[in-house]
RNA sequence: CGGGGCGUGGCGCAGCUUGGUAGCGCGCUUGCUUUGGGAGCAAGAAGUCGCAGGUUCAAAUCCUGUCGCCCCGACCA
């Protein structure tokens, strides 16, 4: 491959685009890799297209290596496939819907579980056919409430999705492990920094699920990591270790007058001053009321969640824990309908008789004693003991996770970071096979329900993540595997530099390198240097003022090093630098 | 959905308060000079100022409406 800057369809920008906030967005636009078309929708220019294809190639090679077979579904899909699993309605506004000329409903595929399942059902029928794994690299469409950060979170994006079909749980586990290994190879080859995190299997009803998160300040996901034992988990999936149950005798429950203590801080200050309890916010029990809606039905139940008063409820964690139920805020009119719930002074002591479910943070163990609401305006209760004064209906992971919290595996302090999800592997189980009645006929003549795994890689997102993780003040710094070229040859000078550069480019191309050569006439050296740094090709060869003395300059974009080398060694030196 | 900000040549912006010939930088075209860090000089091309209505002798500027875009939030009872 040989690209010439003199004819390459490329225009770099000197300034950041006004609508870009994050580094990857700014740089990919400035360097002429992508252009915005509409919110969350981008065009890929030649260099961007090459990088995108390189990522796709790596993904494809590693999927093929584990025996997955590539297929391609349409992005434009008829409604009926999504009707059978209920997702035509469940997906809500995120689904791009459209009608054909006859008025029939269509959608742009946000994901393709239904299509894969249906395809396998149509072709395979014997246990001898299994296991099988299929994948595609496809454009997906999701009408996100808020697309952001350029191609990091778009409404149209390229994703590799694959599905494994197995006869039993052991097979599923093997398919899952194969994918896990493939993903490790993919992200290692791409040069992405990532962490494998435990994730919630959530509504999909699966058993095991892990996310590949790329640590990144601009990330939307929060994850915890333990430096000691290597445990890592999405914040939504973190398990809170329960302290040992308390058995020692506790003083009896005591109701306290606590006027004007609407917040935890004011409550703590008040009881310490007037009752000398010497407590902290962590000794109080905060009770949050939510409504939980069951999707697909009108059923709404009231739920109270108890967490230590020094912690906020993390709505995302709550949501994940309640899934498929959807928590909603308990409004003033809801309080009006439940006079037993005294806003600001709710305690769990009365929930049983009110018939309201009560779930507590795992720290609220049997025998633990709390200061909490007394279910009367202006009153709280002290020495309220779990198991004695109230009986929780179970535990729930809803409290926020904080840096320094105990690792659930080894007890060391956890750190918290943000990341971007670039891959997800997931033991789906039989949900879709059940919906589609996907069976194989067994050796005994009886049907075997197939069990599935679902696996995704954000291909276009990976491009943005690389830009996000690998850049400096001058521009992009691509790893060689995805770079638009192996070497960027800059010819600059008023003598024969451009011809020499062009000749070197042809020689190196013939030796198997992907070459980008700046052969633009009448362009000043400064511009060419700046562009080379902005574009981010890993190896840069400058053919400039030294050429009449037989000297050229070899640069390493990532290391920032430069070295003068003899012109007649240039070809071999570049080949060596490019690992060819 | 809530809050904030912004719509002016291809890109980045000023002008609006206080109405009066639409401007700057980058980019682009032509010529000459220049060639190791986003060159210089000269001459050019290119904008119905998001859209609609209103006020006015006169609107990018004031008023009303509307559309779009960007950012933050989506919870703390």
From TrEMBL:
GO molecular function: ligase activity
EC number: 6.1.1.15
Boundaries of every Aminoacyl-transfer RNA synthetases class-II family profile domain copy: 35-479
Compartment list: Cytoplasm
Main location (coarse class): cytoplasm
Keywords recorded for this protein, A-Z: Aminoacyl-tRNA synthetase, ATP-binding, Cytoplasm, Ligase, Nucleotide-binding, Protein biosynthesis
Enzyme class: ligase
Catalytic activity: tRNA(Pro) + L-proline + ATP = L-prolyl-tRNA(Pro) + AMP + diphosphate
Cited PROSITE patterns: AA_TRNA_LIGASE_II
Lineage top rank: taxon: Bacteria
Its job: Catalyzes the attachment of proline to tRNA(Pro) in a two-step reaction: proline is first activated by ATP to form Pro-AMP and then transferred to the acceptor end of tRNA(Pro). As ProRS can inadvertently accommodate and process non-cognate amino acids such as alanine and cysteine, to avoid such errors it has two additional distinct editing activities against alanine. One activity is designated as 'pretransfer' editing and involves the tRNA(Pro)-independent hydrolysis of activated Ala-AMP.
Family note: Belongs to the class-II aminoacyl-tRNA synthetase family. ProS type 1 subfamily.
Known partners and oligomeric status: Homodimer.
PANTHER family listed in its UniProt record: MITOCHONDRIAL RIBOSOME PROTEIN L39/PROLYL-TRNA LIGASE FAMILY MEMBER, PROLINE--TRNA LIGASE
Domain comment (free text): Consists of three domains: the N-terminal catalytic domain, the editing domain and the C-terminal anticodon-binding domain.
UniProt name for this protein: Proline--tRNA ligase
Organism annotation: Microbispora corallina
Taxonomic placement: Bacteria, Bacillati, Actinomycetota, Actinomycetes, Streptosporangiales
Name of the encoding gene: proS
């Amino acid at each position: 491959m040989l690209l010439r800057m003199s004819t390459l369809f490329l225009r770099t920008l000197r300034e950041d685009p006004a609508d870009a906030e994050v580094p990857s967005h700014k740089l990919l636009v400035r360097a002429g890799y992508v252009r915005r078309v509409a919110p969350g929708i981008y065009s890929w220019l030649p260099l961007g297209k090459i990088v995108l294809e390189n990522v796709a190639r790596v993904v494809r090679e590693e999927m093929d290596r584990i025996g997955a077979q590539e297929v391609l579904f349409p992005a434009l899909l008829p409604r009926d496939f999504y009707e059978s699993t209920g997702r035509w309605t469940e997906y809500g506004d995120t689904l791009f819907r459209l009608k054909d000329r006859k008025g029939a409903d269509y959608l742009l595929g946000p994901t393709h579980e239904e299509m894969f399942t249906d395809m396998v059902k149509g072709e395979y029928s014997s246990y001898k056919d299994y296991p099988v794994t299929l994948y595609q690299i496809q454009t997906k469409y999701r009408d996100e409430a808020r697309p952001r950060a350029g191609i990091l979170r778009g409404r149209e994006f390229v994703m590799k999705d694959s599905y494994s079909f197995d006869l039993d749980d052991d097979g599923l586990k093997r398919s899952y492990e194969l994918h896990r290994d493939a993903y490790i190879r993919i992200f290692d080859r791409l040069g992405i920094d990532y962490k494998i995190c435990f994730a919630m299997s959530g509504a999909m009803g699966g058993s095991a699920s892990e996310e590949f998160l790329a640590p990144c300040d601009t990330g939307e996901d929060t994850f915890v990591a333990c430096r000691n034992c290597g445990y890592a988990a999405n914040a939504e999936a973190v398990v809170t270790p329960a302290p040992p149950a308390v058995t020692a005798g506790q003083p009896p429950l005591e109701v306290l007058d606590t006027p004007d203590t609407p917040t935890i801080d004011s409550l703590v200050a008040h009881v310490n001053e007037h009752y000398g309890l010497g407590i902290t916010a962590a000794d109080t029990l905060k009770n949050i009321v939510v409504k939980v809606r069951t999707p697909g039905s009108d059923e709404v139940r009231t739920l109270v969640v108890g967490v230590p008063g020094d912690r906020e409820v993390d709505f995302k964690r709550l949501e994940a824990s309640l899934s498929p139920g959807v928590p909603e805020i308990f409004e003033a009119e809801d309080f009006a309908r439940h006079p037993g719930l005294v806003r600001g002074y709710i305690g769990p002591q009365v929930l049983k008789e009110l018939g309201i479910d009560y779930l507590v943070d795992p720290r609220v163990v049997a025998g633990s004693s709390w200061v909490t609401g007394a279910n009367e305006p202006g009153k709280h209760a002290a020495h309220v003991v779990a198991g004695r004064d109230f009986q929780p209906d179970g535990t729930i992971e809803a409290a926020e996770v904080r840096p320094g919290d105990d690792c659930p595996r080894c007890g060391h302090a956890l750190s918290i970071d943000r990341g971007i999800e670039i891959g997800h592997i997931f033991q789906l189980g039989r949900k879709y096979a059940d919906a589609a009645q996907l069976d194989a006929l067994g050796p005994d003549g009886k049907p075997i329900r197939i069990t599935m795994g679902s696996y995704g890689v954000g291909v276009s997102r990976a491009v943005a993540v690389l830009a996000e993780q690998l850049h400096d003040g001058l521009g992009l710094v691509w790893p060689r595997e995805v770079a638009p070229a192996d070497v960027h040859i800059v010819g600059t000078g008023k003598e024969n530099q451009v011809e020499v550069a062009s000749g070197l480019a042809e020689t190196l191309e013939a030796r198997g390198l992907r070459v980008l050569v700046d052969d633009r006439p009448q362009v000043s050296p400064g511009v060419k240097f700046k562009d080379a740094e902005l574009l981010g090709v890993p190896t840069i060869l400058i053919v400039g003022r030294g050429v009449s003395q037989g000297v050229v300059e070899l640069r390493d974009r990532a290391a920032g090093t430069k070295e003068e080398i003899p012109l007649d060694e240039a070809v071999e030196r570049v080949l060596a630098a490019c690992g060819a």
